[in-house]
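Hello,

Our lab assistant flagged a job as stuck in the queue for most of the afternoon. It eventually completed. Since we weren't sure the result was trustworthy after the delay, we are filing this so someone can double-check. Below is the sequence as submitted and the structure that was eventually returned. Let us know if re-running is recommended.
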Amino acid sequence: MQAHPHISAHKTFKNQALSQMSYTKELKVVEVRIGSDGWSARGLVSDGSEAEVEGTLSLQPQANPVKGFDDYFLNLTVENNRRNPWFVEFWEDHFRCKYPNSSRTPYNSHYSTECTTHEKLSRDTLAFEKQLQFVSDAVMAFSIALDHMHADLCQGKVGLCDAMRPTKGPELLKYLRKVSFQGLSEDHFKFDKDGDGPARYNIIHFKQIRPGVYQWVQVGEYLEGELRLNMSAIQFKLSHPSPPESVCSLPCDIGQAKKYVEGESCCWHCFNCSQYQIRLPSDETQCLTCPEGTKPDLLRQNCLEIPAMFIEITSTWAIGAMALSSTGILMTLLIVGVFIRHNNTPVVKAAGRELSYVLLFGILLCYLVTFVLVLKPSDLVCAIQRFGAGFCFTVVYAALLTKTNRISRIFNAGKRTAKRPNFITPKSQLMICGGLVSVQVNDEKPLYFV
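-- returned structure --
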């Protein structure tokens, strides 16, 4: 049998308390100081060291008053309690006097007054031990076990029988394990399968209730394997109510990997992965670059395909652009028709008929490229978009530049001579215009056709 019925429950309670006091965040553990019942709510521990003891949790065996004991003890005197050889010393120490005819001791030698023997104990001057219930339960457990043992071995015989002389400890232990009774404190008592008494604890907490004022307060209880803890009542510091963290390294944030300190398995430094890297859940020490066309998800743990974003042909912007382009195409074709109808007239010839057709062709291409721009992207569509956007404007600007240059050279030459300048024939103009356009074609060709 164990001397104290609550000792073996201490380890169980501590494990459960630490488990409940732990936080769900990875690797975050609360630093908790848990005191045993040997120094719970004792001024010897906290007096003068309040700042150091603040925030402590302690165990206090849960005990209820023993019914009738207070009245019994308050009615004791030296005369009616001769069986207690230390009661005289208690009396002298409590009333600060020397009891008549008592032996001289180092403790009463300095008392100058003599006790009247009429002193009376009162509740105002006495503080009863709160754990008296355990003594009462222990005495009752032995008395009931002995009574059951006597009934079985002595068969109703008064006094000790030969079967109980001497009383054997292992035999008595069997009866002790089986006792079950309601004690004088009205709590039920019995031993568990391990031979321990019922584990009942009050969980008390030393906190600063206001600046400079400290107090032990109850924040929970532990009743025979069940822990009840009021976390909201626990305050580790008055200015810092949240519990402190006890970790070597905090968890890395999203998008960060760990670099362990050499020789350590619980301490690390966090470093950032790049914008297009992820950290695999299976390996927290490396960053992996996402393949082309993918990007990290919000948790930076998986690579997701980048969705293709383009103008839908049914969108308002696309319909509006195609409507304007269609109008432009119709106007361009109308003008082309006018030029074809009047192809051999002096006005059309004087305007540079061949270059005018090239110019109209370039303008028509500009309007037609709009329809390619609103198509769903593909390798061919993207190539046409990139090449066509530059090519059609190059045709327009090359035709305008060639026409302007031809007219300029004709007027400049007319001021000096009646001879016609070189390279003003339609064939020459088309070659010059083609040469200018070829510069753009050669610039675009490596991008799409090589």
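-- support follow-up --
The delay was a queue issue, not a problem with the job. The result is valid. DSSP finds twelve helices and 13 strands in the chain. Residues 1-11, 13-31, 446-450 have pLDDT under 50 and may be disordered.
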